[in-house]
Design goal:
- This protein is α/β, with parallel strands linked by helices and 515 residues long.
- Helix content is 39%, strand content 15%.
- The protein has 19 helices and 17 strands.
- It has a seven-stranded parallel β-sheet, with helices on both faces.
- α5 links the parallel β3 (84-87) and β4 (110-113).
- The radius of gyration is 25 Å and the shape is globular.
- The structure holds adenosine-5'-diphosphate.
- Adenosine-5'-diphosphate binds next to α3.
Amino acid sequence: MLQQARQVLKQYFGYDSFRIGQEQVIQNVLEGRDTLCVMPTGGGKSVCYQIPSLCSDGTTIVISPLISLMKDQVDILRSNGIPAAFINSSLTYSQIDQTMEDVRNGLTKLLYIAPERLENESFCKELSQLNVPFVAIDEAHCISQWGHDFRPSYRIISNLVSLWNKKPTLIALTATATPSVIDDICSLLAIDEEDVYITGFSRENLSFKVLVGVDKDKYVKKYIQSYPNETGIIYAATRKSVESVYEMLLKSGVRVAKYHAGMTETERTKEQNRFLNDEVQIIVATNAFGMGINKTNVRFVIHYQMPRNMESYYQEAGRAGRDGLPSECILLYSSVDEQTQRFLIDQSLDRSRIPFELKKLQTMVDYCHTQHCLQAYIVEYFGEQVSQECGQCGNCTDERPKTDVTEETQKVLSCVVRMGQKFGKTITADVLAGARNKKVVDFKHLSTYGILKPMSSKEVSRFIEFLIAEKLLSVKPGQYPTIYVSEKGKEVLIGDRKVLRRLSEEPKVVIKDDP
Ligand code: ADP
């Protein structure tokens, strides 16, 4: 069975060997077991359903939320000699009829459909009368309420499958599943625990870095100038920000494209192609860009602002270095980014998800303030045990000595307690720094007022963010998030735990090592 799979890999895709995890997933699927495949972006998930499909009779159905990319995916398959087709809202009724006619006549090996199609009962019934060996569910985290991109139509998949006389084998695929998302996918699709394949989340060729409070424009310009022959993506949080970074780079003579949902489809395709064909060095984009984009030589991904959660971050940053060569993922953080994301979350339609989204945002903020290995932080977030630090991220290579800040920490924690544990970090920082603004009037009598002078409010604020990332302080999310002392923090208060922090000035911003 695997012999044939290997031949297909060579014949249609031109590769000699499978990557980690692919072989096991393909074997499991070919044995008819419903399977969940969790692999990082760029890990090679597509062949995990394409190869079983090519090794079997009938048409494999691929459910994918990436409507705008279906055509590209299908074109690529066709150019490799694989008969594939798609059905989504971009087709006319007669095109859909023709596509279904081809499918009925056994001319199509892979049929891509948008999840919303599943809401059409007669369409589902029609599918159930076909010979379908496999149903692939791409971006399977969309089925879970705990995923970052919940799509209600995904819930219909199990109903669809129950329509068939001979049940197709399911293969669910995702890059971004936390343990609770995995549990959810498995229970909703009735996948056994032993049929879950998770391959390493760490991407050894990526080095991560967070820079706090740098002059972003200056940094980005200098960075790009230092790597004139390397291609990169710059992600910004809003359309407006994409436009301004784009203009700034254009003015400095950088060959640059832009991409966001406010542009017409024609413009977007044009800009995307300029980037894919190496006509420009850089693309500045919102998170609308990148899904399914397969450009392997992206050497760096810079986040001009912090994204809203770790899933998005890793997915976007993971577009660097798909060819396995060393690449950088840099996040430029400033505290305004947190407010921007808070605002965007607050605009979201599904109010019930807001507390959940805010919690995810906090984990992202913590990433920006941790002093531990960044690669390990990410991988652990996705539920994988880490045996060693990466040795190459901004924190692993930070050589500043660690200073004992236990006493300062105790001062912060006691101030939080004195303030009744019901205020946010900005006002707490103002109190500790002895600020003279109106907001702190009520706290001037506290013994902790001004206790961290001569630190500025900004410095104290950063210290508090560090303590949150260290889990000594916890955040109660909400429109006005408040901070309180965690169980671990209490150990510091009673002198049972020490706190070490790399102090002195921020690490030097080294852009390029001398050649
Ligand atoms: P994912 O969907 O997991 O993000 P893709 O399926 O798009 O990733 O694959 C990423 C890239 O890796 C593609 O260019 C693909 O052709 C390539 N690839 C997949 N499997 C192999 C393999 N066994 N050997 C070499 N390259 C592979």
